[in-house]
Amino acid sequence: MNIAAQINSILAALVLLTAFGLLVQRRIYGLLHLFAWQGLFLSISTGLVGYVARQHHLYISSILTLALKVIVLPYILHTLIVRLKIHKEVETVVNIPTTMLMGIALVIFSYHLTAPIRELSTLVTRSTIAVALATVMLGLLMMITRRHAVTQIIGFLAMENGLFFAATSATYGMPLVVELGVGLDILIAAFIFGIFFFHIRETFDSLDVEQMARLKEEE
Amino acid sequence: MSISPFILAASAILIFLSIPLLVPLFLRHQRLLINISSLIAAIASLLAITAGVWTVWKGSTESYIMPLGLPDLPFHLRLDPLSGFFFTVIGLLGFSVSIYSIGYVKGFLSRRPVNRLIIFYNLFMAGMFMVIIADDAFFFLISWEIMAAASYFLVMFEDEKAENRKGAFIYILVAHVGAIAILLSFGVMASLATGFENFGGYTFDAMRQTEFPIKWATVAFLLAFLGFSAKAGVFPLHAWLPEAHPVAPSNVSALMSGVMLKTAIYGIVRVTFDIIKDFPWWWGVIVLIFGLLSAVMGVLYALMQHDLKRLLAYHSVENIGIILIGIGLAMTFTSFHLPVLAALAITAGLYHTLNHAMFKGLLFMGAGAVLHATRVRNMEEMGGLIHKMPWTAALFLIGCISISALPPFNGFVSEWLTFQAFLLSPSLPSPILKLIFPLAAALLALTAALAATCFVKAFGITFLGQWRGHHTHVHEASPSMRVGMILTAVSCLFLGVFPTMVISWMDIIPEKLVGGSLTTTAGQFGWLWLTPISHSRASYSAPLVFLIILAVVLLIYIFLHTRKTAIHRGPLWDCGFEKIDTRMQYTGTSFAMPIRRILGFIFLIKETVRIEASTGTPGHNTFPRSIHYRLRVRDRMWGWIYNPVADASFWIARKTGKLQQGRIQAYLVYSFVTIIILLVLL
Amino acid sequence: MNVFSPLFVMCLQFIAVLFAAPAFAGWVRMVKCWFQGRKSAGLFQPYRDIFKLLNKDVVLAENASWIFRFTPFLVFGTTVLAGVIIPILSIDLPLSATADAIALVALFTIARFFTALAGLDIGTAFGGMGSSREKTVASMSEPAMLMAIFTVSLVSQSTSISHMVNVIAHGEFVLRPSLAFALLAFILIALAETGRIPVDNPATHLELTMIHEAMILEYSGRHLALIEWAGMMKLFLFTTLGIALFFPWGIAAAGDITFLPVAILLLLIKLFFAGIGLVLIEIGLAKMRLFRIQEFLGSAFLFATLGLLSYFMLE
Amino acid sequence: MTLIILLGVSFFAAIVLAFVGDRRFAPEINILGSAATFIAGVGLAVHVYYEGPMIAGGNFFFVDAFNVYLTVLTAFVSMTTAIFSRRYMRREREHGRVSHWGMRFYHAMFQLFIFAMLLALLTNNIGVLWIAMELATLSTVLLVSLYRTPTAIEAAWKYFILCGVGIAQALFGTVLLYFAAEKVLGEGGEALLWTNLIQVSGQLEPTVLRLAFVFLMVGYGTKVGLVPLHNWLPDAHSEGPTPISAVLSGLLLNIALYALVRCKVLVDLSTGTNMAGNMMMGFGLLSILVASFSLLRRKDIKRLFAYSSIEHMGIATFAFGLGGPIATFGALLHMLVHSLTKSSIFFTVGHASQMHGTQEMSKIKGLIKGNPLVGWGLVFGVMAIVGMPPFGVFTSEFLILTATMKDAPLLAPLLLLGLGVAFAALFRRVQPMISGAVPSNQMPVKASHIPIILHMVLVLIIGIYMPNFLSEWFHTAVGLLK
Fold it and tell me: What is the span of the domain harbouring residue A18?
């Protein structure tokens, strides 16, 4: 197993770590930083894979990731948080230790799932696909366990990261047009949730999604 | 192209379909619209009658394919004697009712425009004919549902009344669920037929040529029977019928009760005898049992009603039962390969179909005339109408006699045939059936007797005695209405007096369906004697009965009236009290009391008596100021079947409602869990 | 001769039914009087009653409709028709094929149907009460009657009466439990149908007990005469029907007119005993409450059913 | 060429409208744009009808019998919706429910949405298909929250999050698909092209595809609105402006189902089993039952019909899962007639709720007397949607049910139950609304006739006389989806 693969695995481990961090982090700025870090690891690993596998379009997507996930999105989120004056800790629905246990269970589960695929793959990055899936799942779990709009968005973006990571690790990246398209979509999404934060804020004067439970079937 | 029954039939349908187009032209002149559309409808019905009679006469079968529907599944049409017979039935009633409508529909003009009524009336007629002529599952169901939808809107005609909405809703619901059941049954048969994969299996022809494995045949039959009996109002699926028929305009109720239910009978006959063909004997017994149930329960519930049209509606349940008895017997005999007996039974069933169409149509038209005149449906508020509307009374009486199965009118003939079919049970191989059938016959007898009782009540309380109502300006029905009723009344008499002609006419049908026929036996003593099996077996000569009674009556009348003995009119004998008033008459409720008391366990009876003590004399109810007696007889089936089903579905609905409980986390959990489950199942 | 014999028999029977019926009614009354230790009005009193009523004027209630006036004639007509299809003296009645047993029951139903309507026509409480009760009884007795007839018709493979009688009279003689049960049922039903004690009391005009009388309470003059007469014929016919179905021996076979006198004689003897039997029943039993009648007729139905079952199980 | 027009028109219309904003003639431009799109779509259809399937834009676009009729349908319904929304939105604007910016936004996003859907339909690249789906979601999210009411924002937020998450799953599925494909087709864009995939589907790695389909199923299933992933749907439909509800259930669900079916074909071909089919049947049946029972206790008219959309998508999904020529034919037809009927129902519903100023059914009465077009439109729409002849929905349900009797007779009772309950629920609710006298709170409304009448007539024609080319298309499509 060559050096690149080793570095790649370390990066994967770091991504997974940040994913867990996102799961357990209470402070909103912390979440933001963790998310930025995750993006960074992601883009590095993408670049690395691109270098190892001579997939030059991966450079582009790595730069794209860097720009989008490490700079633009955290910046947007940061400004939003400042504008909306959200400093207090974000409380979770399920308490942290339980969440962690569930997270670990998820990692094991996704490892089990991806085992057959890993056998099929011949890529240097094949070992990391489990991590990618785990990241997706953890992102989803985070969205479930958090009750703050911003954290939900961050969880959502973390899922996207997982997907990106899957794309680069399972295969050597999707075709460029797809990558670009995905990036564009995420950008639009970012603007949309930006608008949303203000809407929610001005109608519910807080970003706690728990309040948004009016639309239910009458009993 | 040369003129043929099929052309006539098709043109009749086309005319009916195109009458609604007249409505926009005459929006301003409603009376003109009514006259024209009704007349055209009558003409179209005449065409249909001709087509039907002709087809049965020739025993011909014509089939055409219309390039409509799906390109791979065009509409198949087929006019064979069976369809021809039902064409005749529907046409006959349609003709009289259309004429009746000229006068009747005008009664609405003072209250509302009648465009809707006219449009859907004709669509309804067209739908029924299309059902009869359809020869593939697709077109059959389309016509079936058009018929249902049109009649739904007709029941909804006076949609501001809550009872109309309720009735219409229950009706369309039962009808549609039934239709889906029929659809599934066709699905079974089509999927077994050849060429299903390329849309070939849906035609009845393809189904006819298929040998169904018994298991699937049974599934198909049960589904079809379920669906059709939902439409026919077979007990216990009858509950929609007494809700929907009374609230519809009376010309419509006449059609719904008189012929629409018969399309379901047609469906049963078509599916069992024509498409599936060979079946085990217990199918017949099932049909028989449900027939008996409907007959007895129908008449018993009818006896308890004091709403005239409701009473008639329950009698439709009864008569459908009698028809099904005939069909069921025929099925049993067929399954034991006794073609002649089967022919007798099915003739009885079909003949009663025809008869019921006639007299039930007549009765509903009469009831319509009464409603038209008195503005009430409750018999307890009528009485003495025979003086105010003699024509309607006489015609209604004919209807009553016919439906009570009294010679020499038509109801008796078909029931007599059914009895004969019953009494042939000893020739069945199965001992138990031999033994059960005569008992079933006794139940039929009970039904007939109760029906007679019920119509003594209906006619007596409504037309005889003294007027109990409030307003006095009660008028006789308009000429066109009378003509409509007279037509059916005459046909009742004709069908009762000359059964041999009719039976030899329709003899081709049993020959085609069950391979046996009655002509060999029925006709041999000439048109005078109806001898279904053999002369020594049983015989009935309606003409003679009619003539002898007539002769004797006339003779005595003349004999007694040659002598001048005056007839004095005097007051009633009032037992020495002061003048008795109309409130002291026997009411429908009190008339039915003995039977209600004897068979009370069948009904859901709620009796309440409220006594207002006369003030002053403390505590003495000996001479109360007033006594209020209230009686509610409800159908047990509501409590046993319908309400539980409704409650159950609402319970489930409440549970599914919980799924949508507002919190987004929960929804995310759903998708999360879904993924996990699917991945685990993988 | 043979050509005319059927017609001759028919006329004979017609006259017999028409004019022997009152005599039989009178006979029953006479016997009853004797048993009750009263002096009887004689065998011919019914004739005198009918004749007198025929000559009396008719008083109609104000709002009596044509139905009320038409009913007596119709009742009479149907009863006469019934009279010419039940073989009493000889089997080959040409008109016997007009209506079989089922139609016969239906004929009586017509009469009852119209009588009940007439009862309602006036609009008094009594008439309605009478019709209501009458129809209630009828709706229970008619099925039982048909059951009894079915039993006989299953035995004789036919529902045409003359054929039934023929089979039983001239077929080989076997003791049939089914027929015994049928007879029992038939007697009970006949009592109910002809309005005798214990179901109804033809002699009473006590409001609360009468059934048939309540319906015809408003009749008078010739209308009443016709109805009374028809009632007597009905009694006579039911008796002879019972005789013909269950004790037909001695009835004239098809074609031999010479046997007729014997047949007549035998019939008279049978009627003689039938009348006595009827009276015995009537004085032996008490009038029932209305709501006991369904039990009475229920048992009739039960007997008929037993007859049926025993036909299938024992024969 | 037609393709470029087809996609270009709506794209540029979107930009133009973004600039035109709330001018008086904005709705007309909107109509013009979608009309042009429709004409282009018809042109494309004619071309395909005569020339057969075509690949254009360097393998980027692919048009066959399956997606061409959906393209025409999408263009058509969006055109009629544009016509409808002219009067509808104008009234909303007058009543001040929509702001100046709102109108600008509405028109622009409407066109963008159409563009996204057409792109999703026409593209040959599964990745691009995914992008288009996401774009379709994003473009409608803010339309759902157009009214800015708390409930509207909540609904939009749920729509955004749930569909976002769902679509993310779908992307993961797509990645796996690509992973399997590049083994066979090698690196690069070729490996995501449907045309290539379908050719090599036999060689694709079954285990991967099975895994992929789970994610695709959940992902696209969320957008189809299959139970239990449906929760966004009633909210989004009930809170957004009615034209959007119409296109959401009339079109967007179809597109999602289209994507799902494309994937299903691949997976089943590669696994050689009916695993994907069975999964779809399961989801379909569950959706039918849950939706039809949920219909029973609704009070909000738009929620009612939202659930009915879930039910019908369930039917179509079930039928696709069932497979077999008849069922597939029925499913294709069902997609068509359902979107026609349902959108016309939403038109009438929109007018009805405008007339009464509420979406509560208990307050809506006497429609037929009040406004015959709306009243009868609603009646016939509902009769059509519950599957009464002679409307087209009956035809499709007829085929589907009969096919069920052949292939899965044991499931037929459940279908019977579901359809029966749905029928009862809808009629029970609709009957009081149409019938009776005009209530006091009813105000007149200028209903837009053309869309309603047009849709109902089309559904009727399809029901009693289906044109030949349509059934030929369906047959070819059936061939494709074997």
Answer: 3-211
